[in-house]
Design brief:
- About 35% of the residues lie in helices and about 20% in strands.
- By secondary structure, it is of the alpha/beta class.
- It has a single domain, classed as Rossmann fold.
- A seven-stranded parallel sheet has the order 3-2-1-4-5-6-11, with helices on both faces. A two-stranded parallel sheet has the order 7-10. Strands 8-13 form a two-stranded parallel sheet.
- α5 runs parallel beside α7.
- The longest helix is centred in the first third of the chain and has 22 residues, at about 90-110.
- The chain is globular, with a radius of gyration of 18 Å.
């Protein structure tokens, strides 16, 4: 598939801005990025604002009127926090489900179906029965956020029976990397635990471990997520399926804290979160030719 023009939704967020960096470096594509800056930060894309290949659009997805100029949509815009989704229910439905469906409705209205790479989540598995977890694992959403991600996947599946949708769902495990923590974000307490721990450590505070810290996470570097998005976009043979995007190993939250600081404290466990995330990434390796390249221990050493 020939790709010249793409759209990144949520471009000023943690993952969106890193995807922009990756695509600017690795491709010659023209990139539009839209973000309403509700949780994103324009500073995350500031180094590309004078690049003729990038156009920043400060607006909401619901105001978009056409997708016809794009060969591929990278849909990352979301409120990506589990705990706030229990409290701000309508807001999360609007941002995580309704906005996604607006993009699909535009495709249907225009009878134009660009490649649609959707940023989904491993949260849809809940606490899985099969470890490492394959894409065929039973869905068990433990939070409204997880359910909204799965709803988008299910809508894409159902609508593809009637329309020629061309989508790929990337089920991210636990992302970390540059710009993962934004102190100005009102939801920053629910950011990547790696970013939170490092931020506290850099500011002379101890990591706060939820529960007993035994919960295990598969941590995946944002650069590897960006690479997965790129490979999903350019692969003509991949159609209407899902991939786990994780590192393929696991680390407890307590072990993570101990890698960052010899001192830490415990706080109450959060409900609605999985006891373990551990990706089986065989499918992504075999079909996308994607392999994670980054190690969390190296990242911690570089940023502690």
């Amino acid at each position: 598939m020939q790709i010249n023009n793409v759209l990144i939704t949520g471009v000023a967020g943690f993952i969106g801005s890193n995807l922009l960096d990756y695509l600017i470096e690795k491709t010659n594509w023209h990139i539009d990025g839209i973000d309403n800056l509700s949780t994103g930060n324009k500073n995350n894309v500031s180094n590309h604002l004078n690049n003729s290949r990038f156009v920043f659009i400060e607006d909401t997805i619901g105001n978009m009127q056409s997708l016809k100029k794009y060969d591929c949509i990278f849909h990352l815009a979301a409120l990506p926090r589990i705990q706030p989704s229990f409290e701000f229910v309508t807001e999360h439905i609007t941002e995580n489900l309704t906005s996604s469906m607006h993009l699909v409705e535009l495709m249907i209205k225009e009878n134009y179906f660009p490649k649609f790479v959707f940023s989904s989540s491993s949260a849809i598995y809940g606490t899985p029965k099969i470890i490492p977890t394959p894409e065929t694992e039973e869905i068990d959403c433990l939070s409204p956020y997880a359910f909204q991600k799965y709803e988008v996947e299910k809508y894409l599946e159902l609508l593809s029976t009637r329309y020629p949708l061309n989508y790929v769902n990337l089920r991210y495990f636990n992302p970390y990397g540059p710009r993962s923590f934004n102190p100005a974000n009102k939801f920053n307490a629910y950011s990547s635990v790696v970013g939170i721990f490092l931020y506290r450590h850099q500011n002379g505070e101890v990591p706060l471990v939820t529960g007993d810290g035994s919960q295990k996470r598969d941590f995946i570097h944002v650069y590897d997520l960006a690479k997965a998005n790129y490979l999903a976009a350019i692969n003509d043979k991949i159609l209407n399926t899902a991939f786990n995007i994780g590192n393929g190993d696991t680390l407890s939250v307590l072990e993570l804290a101990q890698k960052i600081s010899p001192n830490y404290e415990f706080i109450p466990k959060r409900e609605g979160e999985s006891d373990i995330t551990f990706a089986d990434i065989t499918k992504a390796k075999d079909l996308l030719n994607w392999f994670p390249e980054h190690n969390i221990s190296d990242f911690i050493k570089e940023n502690s």
